[in-house]
Amino acid sequence: MESIVQALAGIVGKPYVSASAEERYFYGRDPGLMPAHAPDYVVLPRSVEEIQAIVRLAGREKIPLVPMGAGMSLSGLVIPQRGGIVLDMKRMDGILKVNEAARYAVVEGGTSTGKLHAHLNRYYPRLRFSTPDSPAAATVAANVMIHGQGRLTQQQGFNSDMVSGLEVVLPSGELCRIGSCALSDDWFSKGPPLPDLSGLFLGWFGATGILTKVGIKLYPRKKMRDVEIFITDSPDFVPGILYELTHTEMAEDINIFAQPLPLIFSGNHHIVIYFTGDSAEEMEFKKRTLFHALDGFIKSKDGGFMTVGEGMKKTLLDMPQRSATTFADVTKGGGFEYSGPIVPIDRYPQCSRKLDELAVKYDLKYHATARIIDKGHAMMFAFSFTFNRADADMLNRTRMALSEASEYALSIGGLFWKPTLDEQRIALEKMDPQTARLMKRIKEELDPQGIMNPGNWEGI
Amino acid sequence: MYQLKFDEKRCLACPDGACLVQCQYLKYEADPARKEMVKIFRGEDSPVLQDCVTCYACEEYCKRGNHPFYLINERRENKGILTAPRAITRQWIHIGEPKGKYELGRIGKIALSFGFMPQLKEITKGRLFDDVMPSYFFGQEFFCNVVYIHFANTKVFKERLPVVIENIHKLGVEEVVFLHDECYAAFTSLAPAYGMEVPFKSVHYFEYLYNRLTALKDLIRPLNVKVVYQRPCSNRLCGDSHLFVRKIMDRIGATLVQRTYQDETALCCGSIFRAMYGYDLMADVQGRNLEDMAQSGAEYCIFNCHGCMNALSPLVAARGMTPLHLIDLCRMAIGETPEGGR
Asked: CB 3.0-4.6 Å disulfide test: which of A100, A370, A448, B267 passes with B289?
């Protein structure tokens, strides 16, 4: 053990290696409900070359290696299931390039979404990226790795769809560039018109390689941004409302929330519609178009636009949105987790009713949120629960509720988002056997020793 | 259950059908107007029951002391005619539901009512209120519940208003100064119309302000500004208080400029229209109203209701006028610098 510590220290320097109990404790868990498992070592590299050396060391010694961003998936994706080395990317937090004309940025593998957000605000006020609603410490690389979503997901798809190139350290220690950057210094495409190899890495949670650089597409940032909320008393109307709204192509982002508390929100479904513009005229045109899209629902009294007060508007327009943190402590005790499957938007009523049922069955406080993906091709529906970490019974009830929610989502045609190990296993069992075999062959080809984030996408 | 006191004979003898003839959202001549009202009080169908936008103004237009809007409201409820989307009504019912989280100041014989509008607590500062503050109450337990008449839902206020009256009575106050029209109208118009007894004196804050400004007249420095006033829907339920607006403006040296949509012809802020009917009615009413304000050459747009203020402030500001609550303007006149006046 000591020799591994020394070897790692030889690569990154002594201050950036640890095998101490407190570090191992910290790196052995995430804020969610997955069981903890401590790593044997923690290492914080500062360069691609250091990462390559660490990977080669891990391969040579057959030590598991878990690349980690901010560790905020809540589903245990960077909990080192078989110990080994946690490779914390946070020191590699540079913003390497912003190509304003071609609208993309290249960041290092540990760069936080908050840092990129602040950098663009300061130096490129006409550009933005799809800011996720996770805490600002979440990294760009981890966010695209888990197919995260953000403020532009309604318009542009998953945040991983907005990747414009990757640099990856393979499990062999070799360095590989994916996309246009494989041929030139330009990072404008992650694949097309070449074969798109980004799928060998995105969604694999580090089981096939370590993202050391990410090209991310940037988009026009308008001068004005506003929000309206349409409410309806039945989940059955929600898919139709979403269909009409997305048809307008006027919304920047569309979220939905439903929750029993505070009472003002009880019994209704709130469709939160963001829109942007560069002038008052553009904003008014978009607002009018969005309102008119829902005239039928207003006329039949099935829904209406609620008044959004100044305080609420300010909260909603915040980026990232922090209101989830308020909900996270409703029961006191700081526990919050959700199962957020990706489902077609017509499954909203089923998911909503299932959440009501689970909350009653397991006696939990709940919050439903959904984010529309890519103009309505799908939505992320979050079955969210808040719990007291000091209450073992409540923890257990929450686990059972989340598990049941996930299984239900799969049964109605949904896909797990950032699945836990159990969910990955269930997904592999359910998917077309040939697809599962292809995944296995990819994994074995890239990581024949099985050292990369072991436990993930295994089991076939 | 409480019954509306509506005098059918008085309505039958009406010479002009003013309630509908003067309506700014429906088009009726005198004869058809009278006929429709007769149909309504007889419980028959009438297009008015479908088309009324709940601006409340007919309560003021009727000079014979009847309650045309309350009657329309009753009939709509009986016939199950929804004015607002169900979700909007549900949300509002939840907003007003007592939760035991009310707030009391040091209650004296006179107290200010903030209803359930937290903004009111923020503006009742300075010398204008130092003879009564900190005697106040706030919370759903003291919320008038008048808003439900927008939603053709009389059940809620029939259940809640007597409890609110009792809650206020239990405080031991003799006189309540209401900071919001709806609350004042609840006790001076709605409650009497339904036969509910009110065991305290209700004072509109306009009257209170006017009296305070009179008492503090030595402090007043005429503002010499031109203002327009956005009259809220709920002020139609207590039209007597409206006379104080001009008196207050005169007192502080502000000129209430002449415009088309003021006094009896005032237009709604559009807030309730957007929730109930969507974009077009809201945009039409707001557009006409704002254009009229802008044409008047006013420097300030003075608000009485925070609902109106929330709906119109950005639009007013975009046209170069400063949106301000009436209380804040009065505070400026006595040399104070209110938050909204900075």
From this structure: B267
What gap in Å lies between CA B104 and CA B141, rounded to an integer?
11
E strand or H helix at B302: strand B300-303
Which of helix, strand or coil describes residue B26?
Answer: coil
Q: Is A184 exposed, middle or buried (0-12, 13-18, 19+ CB in 10 A)?
A: exposed
Is A297–B85 a contact, with Cβ atoms under 8 angstroms apart? Answer: yes
Residue of B nearest to A290 (CA): B279
Burial class (CB in 10 A: 0-12, 13-18, 19+), B217: exposed
Are A137 and A115 a contacting pair, CB within 8 Å?
no
CA distance B3 to chain A (A): 27
CA separation, residue A189 to residues A106, A205, B5, B6, B85 (Å): 12, 21, 74, 74, 47
The pLDDT assigned to B341 comes to 56
Please give the full DSSP string across A398-420, using - where no structure is assigned.
HHHHHHHHHHHHHHTT-B-SS--
Predicted confidence at residue A439, as pLDDT, reads: 96
Q: List the single residue in B88, B279, B318 with the smallest CB-CB distance to A231.
A: B88
Please give the Cα distance from A317 to A302 (Å, whole number).
Answer: 26
Q: Global pTM? A: 0.94
Q: Is the pLDDT of residue A412 over 80?
A: yes
Contact B99 A263 (CB under 8 A): yes
Q: Are B69 and B40 in contact (CB under 8 A)?
A: no
- d(C-alpha B223, C-alpha B334), whole Å: 9
Mean predicted confidence (pLDDT) in A18-25: 97
- Could you give the domains of chain A? 2-88 (3.30.43.10), 95-220 (3.30.465.10), 224-411 (3.40.462.10)
Distance CA(A223)–CA(A228), nearest Å, equals 17
Which of chain B's residues have a Cβ under 8 Å away from the Cβ of A260?
none
A336-354 pLDDT, tens digit each? 888 999 999 999 999 999 9
> Does A2 or B293 have the greater pLDDT score?
B293
Which helix (H) or strand (E) segment is A337 a member of?
Answer: strand A334-339
Among the listed residues A310, A228, A291, the one whose alpha carbon sits nearest the alpha carbon of residue B310? A310
Chain B contact present for A182, CB below 8 A: no
Token look-up 């980026």 returns A319
Summarised one tens digit per residue, pLDDT across range A145-196 is 999 999 999 999 999 999 999 999 999 999 999 999 999 999 999 999 999 9
Where does B87-208 sit in CATH, by number?
3.40.50
Give the model's confidence band at A33: pLDDT under 50 very low, under 70 low, under 90 confident, else very high: confident
Q: Please determine whether the domains at B87-208 and B217-341 fall in the same fold group of CATH.
A: yes
Summarize pLDDT for A249-278 with one digit per residue, the tens. Answer: 999 999 999 999 889 999 999 999 999 999
- Compare CB distances from A304 to B87, B94, B310 and report the shortest one's residue: B87
**pLDDT for the residue A389:** 86
Residue for token pair 């290249």: A106
Mean pLDDT, chain A, as a whole number? 95
CATH-assigned architecture of domain B217-341: 3-Layer(aba) Sandwich (3.40)
* Closest Cβ–Cβ partner in A267, A269, A298 for B85: A298
